[in-house]
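Reopening: Sensor histidine kinase still failing for me.
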Amino acid sequence: MTVTSPADAGPVEQAPAGLVHAAVLCGDPDEVARRTEEHVRTALAADETVEVVLDRRGVRAFRDALGDDAERVAFPAPASLVPSGVLPHLDPLDGGVVVGRVCADDPGPDGSLAEDTLTLLLADHRLTVLCVYDPDDPVERARALRHHAWLLTAEGLRRNPDFRAPSATSPVPAGLLGSSVATLSVPDGAALAGLRHQVAVVAREAGLDPERAEAIVLAAHEAMLFASGADLRSDLLPGEHMLDVRVTPAAVVTECRGTPPSGTPLVPVEDPRFLHLRRFCDHATVHADREERLVRVLTGTTR
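Support: Ran it again with your exact input. Result attached.
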């Protein structure tokens, strides 16, 4: 892979309207604060949530740079976002900024899984995630360049030519999406009532308000229909279908594995059933291989 320096990246650009997932290749805490300060202050001016997840030196640098505005910033301990906190502790629909080394310091064998989770699950959301990496560590530098569409340099945001987007047909490992709290076999349409009941129980225990709890139940129902290969005019098609419900501090994730009939398109994201499903959730992804279709639905626990 080509080794990119900030000078090799594209010209400085305005941030896109959706997810900004950028690497900050910088080992000096004061410089990290200077580079990210504009994004932090813009978010604060819009009354959005800002979290800085760094060690004591990093937190001190931000407090010095922000002055009184630092009182409006959350400084959670880095451990509070690991392992299920790959999804930030803020509502992606409301915008906000996260600055931290959570992915770089991931104790797992491959921290790039955390980066790909962010890229895949939060792609449509208005959120800025600034991942701090040590440019002098060759492993960290390579990971940063491979997994971030943007680089935040001293001059501003630049597109990263070394970014390699995660495959749309390679699902994020379920372990990064929180603890599994319920599983259920759904072999036919008669079992859908049990699916709805199970998801409703989890949603209630997770503290979702009634409206969002109802939405996650409907989303799980539609996700299982879609996973089975059913279209908008048919009921669940019989097969070896499974429901897995996972919970993180920020979201409920329902995972539906289905066995659609042979000849079903692999990842038909423009399928009317998928478009219908997205009405009931914050985010949905579809992955498939020759034998099964995996549909994941994410709903935040708060608005």
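The chain is about 30% helix and 20% strand. If you still see a failure, please send the error message rather than a screenshot.
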